[in-house]
Each structure stands twice: as C-alpha cells, then as structure tokens.
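Schema walkthrough. Field components (list of strings):
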Amino acid sequence: MTTVRLTVNGVQREIDVAPGTLLVHAIREQVGLTGTHVGCLTGDCGACTVVVDGATTKSCSVLAHSADGATVETVESLADGEELHPVQRAFWDEFGFQCGFCLPGMLLTAKELIESTPDPDDADIHRAINGNLCRCTGYNTIVAAVRRAAKEAS
Amino acid sequence: MRFTRPPDLDGVTTALAGGDALVVGGGTMVVPELTHGRVDPPAVVDLSHAGLDGLTRAGGWVVGAMVTYTALERADVPLLSRVARGITGGPQIRNRGTAGGSASYANPSSDVPACLVALDARLRLASVRGVREVAAAEFFLGAFRTVREPDEVLTEILLSDVDGKIGYLKFKLVEGSWPIVTAATVARPTAVRVVLGGAAAVPVAVELDPPPAGTTDPAWRAHVASVVERGIDEAGGGWDDVLAPGGYRRRIAPVIAARSVADALGEVTA
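Field assembly_structure (string):
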C-alpha cells in the first residue's frame, strides 16, 4: 500500500492504495464517491469519467498512483446541494437520461465542451460526447440537452 | 508491482534499465491491458512528470512523447493535428492519449503508425545506453511490436516539413470503433505516396502514379488495387482481428487509398 494524495471536489484526501489500483476504484471505494461508475474498464464507455487537473479523463485508464497530487472533480461536484448544475438541469428538462449510468461522462464532457465552445454546433456536440456510450436514450435527447445547456449558459 | 514516476528523463531511463518495466504514458491503452491481465509487469514507469510533453516548431516539429491528442488538435502539425481530432474515444481519451503512445503500442488498427510513416517521421529512443533515432518506416516490426528495446523509452517524434499535398481517410464501421483501414497520402506532382494503416500488421507504404484522369478513373483505380494488394501481401496479408477479417481489409484498402488521394488533391468525392 502506498499513500496517494488527491484533492477531490475541493477536499484534500490521503488514501492508501495497492499498486495497480485504478483511479475509478480509488474514487469509489477509498474516497467513497460512487457517482463515478465502473462500466467497461477498457476506456470505451465513458461511465467512469472524472475531471483530472482540468481535463475530462476516463478514470478506468489511470492508475491511482499516476494521479498522486492531482485535482479531481467528479460528477458529485456539479450540483450545489439540492440545486442542480445548469448542465444537469438541461439533461433533466430534455429527458437526456434514463438509467443514469452514462451520466458522469455525458455531464462532464458537456460541461467541458460548453466552457471551451460556448456556441457549439451539432458536430461539436457529437465530438464532445462520442466517448460515452448510452444504451437508453438513442442520444437525440442528450444532444438536445447539451444544446439547451449551451444556450442557457450564454 | 513497483510504481515509479521519475521527475526527469534520466530517472526514466534508470528505472527502465532492468528491462522489465512497463512504460505508461497517457495510459489509455496499457492501463486496460493491466486491468484485464494481458500484461503483468513487475514494474510500471509513469512518464507524466518526466518533461516529455513539449510540442515545438523547430524546422519541422518536435512532438514530445507525452503530447496529448488534445494538444495536437490545438496546434497545426501537418496531418497529426487533423488525425488527433478524429481519434476515437471522446475528449476523455484525447485529453490523455498520445501519438507517442500509439506509436509505441503499435496496434495495427490505430491511426498514428501509418501517419508517422507517411510523414517520414523519426522516432527518438533513449536508454541508459544512449540515444538513437529510427525512421518510422523501420520502427514497426509487427502487430504490437516495434524496434524499441525493453530498456528504451520513446522520447520524441521528429517531423520534417512536408513538401506535398496531404490527404487522410479513416474508415470505421461505428463511431466508437478503432479504425478498420486508414490511408495517409502525400501527393507530389510526379509521385503519390500512400501509407495504409489497419490493412496489415504493419503500415503499408505504396507509391502510386498520379491519377491522369481523376481518382474515379477505372484504369487508375485498377492500378491502385494492384499496387495496394501487392503491398499488403508483401506485409504478410490483411490484418485480422475482432473488428474485421484480413480479407475484408485487403479488399477495401484500395478504395480507402484512392479516396485519400482524392482528399489530398482536393477532389470532392461522394
């Protein structure tokens, strides 16, 4: 076991992890935040998405040791208590999710897109979310949600 | 498993000197390999603090091994910036994945190896024994195999300026897939060079005649088919994996090559 220091959603954490532990498992099991999901563990599905040092990342493809010293934001960082983040609100209003499994990736990549591209077109939206697999919605309502979130942020 | 994250290149080469360590760059390819037990190294060396993320214009370009696809997207590196924008897996992968990692991993079904051959890139390898440079055309030995020795690390990709028109085409069957076949073209007035990725275990470079009557001309297409199929056969035949059988890749490769040439020449194709 080695100590890894992370700042997760603004809180400094020291966790002891075994070599080879994935960041996603450290976040869920050691930090205790289970909004980040374990899906494919191959980097395909995006359910494990978190923001590491300001950039969306699939946390199943990062060793916890590699994140030592990093700032991590998870899906739990979005809402302020009961108050949904505008991106979450747009997904709610547009029925942009059903089971919610893909939401960490969808919400965090949508937020990253809108921060860098305030007026995204559909091609921008498709490119931003194409690392997330959703088996419920057929994606149309997700694209509508991202479009609404961008409009409401501007 | 020992984990080290050296603060500089000397630390990396020292950590690799035993020849038994797995190099982790962005991790998007090798970390899942670890997770699924396909590799089980006694040691992991993480490159992320070793100062290998420089992207500099120096005559051509020097692309550090840890330069991410996102960094390439934001730059204007011939071909590689464009390829970076189309890397599968979303921004989460492009924010961490690197061209250097793709080259080192040498998955036949990936974009970067064939592009580096098309660009006549040179790859700089470092170890405690010294530094050497290898031409991209000689770097890839087979599927998931390169000339990199176990104690070496790829530090930089060196690119010269390109004196021809560049074209690129990637064919995949679904959005989230690795490429099935890619074709990178550098078209010069007297010769057109196309390097195919995904078609065989290693990138396949072919020299084509410039199309005298456009890239849809059946006679020129027949020429492309014969040259491309011969190139794939000489490289050991079509690459077979779960995504597509070798015969399929060999069959579509000439079409992908021709469309890549059309892209380089600015032809609008359907």
